[in-house]
Amino acid sequence: MGKLEKFDKYFSSIDWTSILDEINERLFFFGGGYSRILDLFSATLIERGIWFDSRYYMSNKVLKIVFKVLSQFADNNLIFSLVSALDDYDSDVRAAVAELLGLIGHSLAVDPLIKLLKDENCFVRSSVVIALGKLGDPRSIAAFNDIALYDDSQGVRADVIRSLREIGDPLGVSLLIEALKDEDSIVVRAALEVLLELVDSGSVELLIEALKDRHWFVRSSVAEALGKIGDPRAIDSLVAALKDKDYFVRSSVAKALSKMDDSRAIDSLVAALKDKDLRMRRIAAEVLGEIGDSRAVEPLIDVALKDEGFFVREKAIILLGELGDSRAVKPLIELLKDEDWEVRRNVATALGKIGDPRAIEPLINATLYDGNCEVCYFSKESLIKIGDMSAVEPLIEGLKDKHPSVRCVAAEVLGELGDSRAVKPLIELLKDENRKVRCDAAEALGKIGDPRAIEPLINATLYDDVFHVRNNAASALREIGVSSAVEPLVKLALYDEDSEVRKNAAYALGEICNPNVVDPLIDADLYDDEEVCENASSELGLRCDPSSAELLVNLTLYEEDSVVRARALNLLVQIRDSIAIEKLINIVLYDEDSEVRKNAAKALGEIGDTNSFETLIMNALDDDEGKVTKNVEEAVRIMGDPELIESLEDALLNKSW
User: Fold this and answer.
1) The predicted structure's pLDDT at residue 90
2) Whose CA is closest to 571, among 554, 588, 595, 586?
């Protein structure tokens, strides 16, 4: 009997007609691959009337598709038939049938497949191992332990590991531990990967034994797994492993111990702070900090802070800040004098996190006088974070320093602290010879919000020759938010002889955001010189109350002065008020004065509101006498948009029809 016929006989119980359509449908789309058994099976498919493209004759995907369909239609008769096929003389048939039984997933196949683990062909044994993994029956674990785990083929042993993952039973952990002794590194790494997924508290003793494995990566991963479990039975073994010759193992052990809430773990990590390896000392400091236990504070202070390695000291400083223990304040303050600016920066940050008032004076000195800008910045941030008002008087003294940079920083911190004692000295600083100092003083006064600063800030807004100072002063007036600044600024904006003063006053009024400033700004925008107008206009574009829109419409249409008309129109475009648009539409449609209609149409065109155009079109279409239509045509042409003109012409043409 030939191969094809012998393979085919195992499927004699199948009603092929019930599954041909589904197989053909699935075979319609698939790609390449190779199978050692498709040359047996493809002829069987063709004989059964299954569509088959010779280009894919060697495609493993074809076989998998057919097997998948067969597994869905399997019954006991087919299973018994397939089990009998496991004894077939042809190894390809045995391998294919094992794969199919794995897909079907019936427990009747477990024992026959286990017997086939001793098959002479390694490909058959691999197929059997994979099939048993898919079946997921714990009976397979014992068989793997007795037979497959010691198979001559590396591929079979690796498949055992993958199948243990599929089965997912904790009983498989002992096999995985045993697989760590495999001579092939691929098998070992595969076993290690699966082991880390399956371990639980029942695996602790086995894992402890694996801490002595010959491979460093095994010892490292096992330590990681023991830390994940967190069982105190592992502590003594992990402590011993801190002396492992490999750094990566010691590092994993230290991290595992950090997860153990036990004094033995902490004591061993403290001892690791004196390890010969700089990297290990840094890891020990890191994990001690992660424990978050006050017992870690003293070792970090006494040992890690004094370490000769920069990275160890850096890690200790950061962790002491995170722990927030006041015992660290004094030694950290001493380190603010360290020659390394990065150390000083980290110390400043740590002191801010601890928040102890003893750090105020040293932080002030670092803020004002440290030669490194980063140290100054982080010291300043820590001062602000602590927020202790004992810093105010020393900082006020700093406002008198001969160095502008010191005066700037002092002003900035005083503004953040918000103490009224700083108002008078900061007002004096508005006259400082340095522009940056004046800028920072104005900003600080705005943050403090004391009304005593209003008049000096008005003067700075109007008369300082540096824009940024004027800008900060105007913003400070806005922060203070008092209406008492409005009246003097309004008078200056409208009546001061100096156009520069009027311009600055208009800007300040816009910053104050008070509704009483709108009309004066309109006056300044319409009637002042060009530079004052520009400032007033930009502020109105952001702040103008729509209630002023009617005034602007009237000025746009009826004002004789062309400059005023243009400025009023510019403001209307910025405001885009719906009431103003509606009024302009009515004027376009019905006003008797052609010049007024022209101005209104121009205004609508500038505003660019599409709804206004639609309204004009509708009115033109409803007009039987022609007067409104004429006005609309005139308005659209003034708007100057070719598409609008074409749309209007089309609409009127359709109306005539």
Assistant:
1) 80
2) 554
